[in-house]
Amino acid sequence: MTKRALITGITGQDGSYLAELLLQKGYEVHGIKRRASLFNTARIDHIYQDPHEARPNLKLHYGDLTDTSNLTRILQEVRPDEVYNLGAQSHVAVSFEAPEYTADVDGTGTLRLLEAIRFLGMEKTCRFYQASTSELYGLVQETPQRETTPFYPRSPYAVAKLYSYWITVNYREAYGMYACNGILFNHESPRRGETFVTRKITRGLANIAQGLESCLYMGNIDALRDWGHAKDYVRMQWMMLQQEAPEDFVIATGKQYSVREFIIWSASELGIELEFSGRGVDEIATVARVTSDMAPAVKPGDVIMRIDPRYFRPAEVETLLGDASKAKAKLGWEPEITAREMCAEMVASDLQTARRHALLKEHGLDVPVSLEDG
Ligand code: NDP
Ligand code: GDR
């Protein structure tokens, strides 16, 4: 029997990698996409199949986590064996600007899905994965963070995700549902949204290298994160739903780096050596040496990073470091891609795009570089 999966957030970073993985495993994959005024399926266009084909294995449904009747109808129509709830307003800084919307989508949205599964009598047949987050640890109470570490959320995003974490546990305990939380630490890839810090850095520096931008404006570059690769992490999302009994797992690499280090790595991938000087909001990064032809627009003495306090958050999560021993022991999961390798892949991908844009510009076909703010 072909297994059927429903993915909310299929157009996002994780949704796209998970859809690829499930298709490879022979699943029939259904995804919920939001109606937007422009196409928003760039991350899954390469696996999308013409809906006019006889039996496409990937089907998209219009929907939204804020719309109960829509979610119920899709679940009733698809009757999935597995639901992966990846949909969310996932930007921590944005959640301070849109806290109520974030609570609705990231908190109540999870309840809507769980309740629809129960209402349709699917609570014993449909397995449920909740995209929980290391942001739950916020102001950390223990290092490294593991499944038993107390939570202390520090943003409307994290508080909404805290609700989702507990409502998932509650439906498991109250109704015997196979429902689990993956407590995932930051994971990135070339498909990462442009306003998350890693992609902002790799894209920004690639643009600077090609003369499309002049300076990267950053927030708290002392923040420490445990960065993994999204491909490694979606593998674990699937594994969590294949066990005999549902359990929650921390997924992390166990290694921690600062945002500043990520800037240094990314610049070095482009053959740019940086010198940091100044403190606090006056800190800058100046080009010390250029050792390759990948950055023709950059020369020694250029200031290519400054601090802009607008990117500071009202409450910051300064440090996160995960302990994934439980996942390793019980599921045999290990991350395969290091943060440094991931950084190299992201820079290479953004450099390719920047080169294309620079070439078009050289020939008078100016491509506006959207200066994403975040
Ligand atoms: P993305 O921001 O890349 O993707 C989020 C997805 O959710 C997109 O498909 C988006 O649609 C969709 N979405 C947003 N709002 C709604 C809504 N109202 N109704 C339905 N769908 C909606 O996130 P990631 O792929 O990086 O993350 C996946 C999940 O994992 C998220 O829940 C995130 O909070 C969580 N998480 C992520 C981590 C990470 O480091 N990446 C770590 C821990 C948890 P659209 O494309 O239209 O915007
Ligand atoms: P995070 O990711 O908040 O950890 O949430 P993000 O990449 O946005 O920030 C990481 C750290 O970098 C600092 N930072 C900046 N961040 C952004 N976006 N822009 C900047 O200019 C900048 N300068 C410094 C931040 O302050 C922060 O400390 C991500 C999301 O994917 C969540 O959905 C997910 O739950 C968590 O990871 C785990």
From TrEMBL:
GO terms for biological process: 'de novo' GDP-L-fucose biosynthetic process. It is an enzyme of class 4 (lyase). One of its GO terms (molecular function) is NADP+ binding. Its EC number is 4.2.1.47. Residues 6-346 form the NAD(P)-binding domain. InterPro entries: GDP_Man_deHydtase, NAD(P)-bd_dom, NAD(P)-bd_dom_sf. Its cofactor is NADP(+). It holds the Pfam family GDP_Man_Dehyd. It catalyses: GDP-alpha-D-mannose = GDP-4-dehydro-alpha-D-rhamnose + H2O. Keywords: Lyase, NADP, Nodulation. The keyword Hydrolase does not apply. Belongs to the NAD(P)-dependent epimerase/dehydratase family. GDP-mannose 4,6-dehydratase subfamily. NCBIfam families: gmd. Catalyzes the conversion of GDP-D-mannose to GDP-4-dehydro-6-deoxy-D-mannose. This is GDP-mannose 4,6-dehydratase. It comes from Citreimonas salinaria. The gene is gmd.
